[in-house]
Specification:
Elements (H helix, E strand, L loop, with lengths): L2 H9 L16 H12 L15 H8 L5 H4 L1 H14 L4 H6 L9 H28 L7 H27 L23 H29 L3 H32 L3 H14 L18
Helix pairs in contact: 7-8, 7-9, 8-11, 9-10, 10-11
The structure holds fe (ii) ion (2 copies).
Keywords: Iron, Iron storage, Metal-binding, Oxidoreductase
Protein name: Ferritin
Catalytic activity: 4 Fe(2+) + O2 + 4 H(+) = 4 Fe(3+) + 2 H2O
Length: about 290
């Protein structure tokens, strides 16, 4: 007997269900004994206990409003539906539908998958920028470390969203990631200032995407998702926008040439040296974003 059978036998409701019992092959007597053990019985001939008192009378006597064993029937019947719809229980059935899923709107599930793609795309662009800055003929290892840390941070955001998706019984569907540019040289602005302005634009774009996702969750009336977005992503994103704007201002103030060189030293102190994030002398990685 597999795990699935055990689950159903222990949690089956005492009230009659229109569908035939899921584990008929184990005998109704055995099942009913287990049900009585968990939920009690309404049949006074079965021995009688305080659990035998009808729900309404029980409520009148005790004043208790929440009747967990009556109210849980709806959720138990959802579990039954999952078994019945998928046919024969077993590993395939377990993978076919979430048992944890409850009031999770399909449009919101799809919107979270889209945001996962946004975060991965951001991560990919920052990784590309990091590789560009790490070139020997560009020579900005502080910028490379900064963009590598930014790339890691965006991937972390994608991971948070993936965990959120599975937490609610949704399915993570990863989509194609748009290939980023490989060249970020700009004669007019210089690669340092141009890359920081690009990063600021992307962070603001992402902030807008997250607020759109929050609006979808609000529309669905899903307080758990809005809370998750507010606590783990939206506030952090606002800080990322401010940080990117600060860097653009500093790059503009510092100017090209030596100004960019000084700014790179400053980024090295904060993020480390180059794609590998060390201190430039082969010592271990510095702190991330
Ligand atoms: Fe992000
Ligand atoms: Fe970000």
């Amino acid at each position: 007997m597999g795990f699935t059978n055990n689950l159903v036998m222990r949690t089956r409701a005492p009230t009659p269900v229109s569908r035939p019992p899921f584990c008929r092959s184990h005998g109704s007597v055995r099942v009913s004994r287990l049900v009585v053990a968990v939920f009690g019985s309404k049949d006074s001939s079965s021995g009688g206990s305080s659990k035998d008192v009808p729900a309404t009378r029980d409520a009148e006597m005790s004043g208790i409003v929440f009747q967990p064993f009556q109210e849980v029937q709806a959720q138990l019947s959802v579990l039954d539906d999952i078994m019945d719809n998928a046919g024969v229980p077993g590993p395939t059935t377990m993978a076919a539908a979430s048992l944890a899923r409850m009031d999770y709107e399909g449009g919101l599930e799809a919107a979270i998958n889209e945001q996962i793609n946004v975060e991965y795309t951001m991560s990919y662009i920052y990784h590309s920028l990091a590789a560009f800055m790490d070139r020997d003929n560009v020579g900005l290892p502080g910028f490379a470390a900064y963009f590598k840390a930014s790339s890691d941070e965006e991937r972390h955001h994608a991971n948070l969203l993936m965990a959120q998706q599975t937490r609610r019984g949704g399915r993570v569907k990863l989509k194609t990631i748009h290939a980023p540019e490989s060249e970020y040289a700009s004669e007019a602005r210089g690669e340092a200032l141009w890359s920081l302005e690009l990063a600021l634009g992307l962070e603001k774009l992402n902030f807008g995407k997250l607020r759109e996702l929050h609006a979808v969750a609000t529309e669905a009336g899903d307080a758990q998702v809005t809370h998750f977005l507010e606590d783990y992503l939206l506030h952090e994103q606002a800080k990322d926008v401010k940080k990117a704007a600060d860097l653009v201002s500093r790059a503009r103030r510092a100017g090209p040439g030596l100004g960019v060189f000084e700014l790179d030293l400053l980024l090295q102190r904060e993020y480390g040296y180059g794609l590998e994030g060390g201190d430039g002398n082969g010592a271990g990685a510095a702190a991330g974003a």
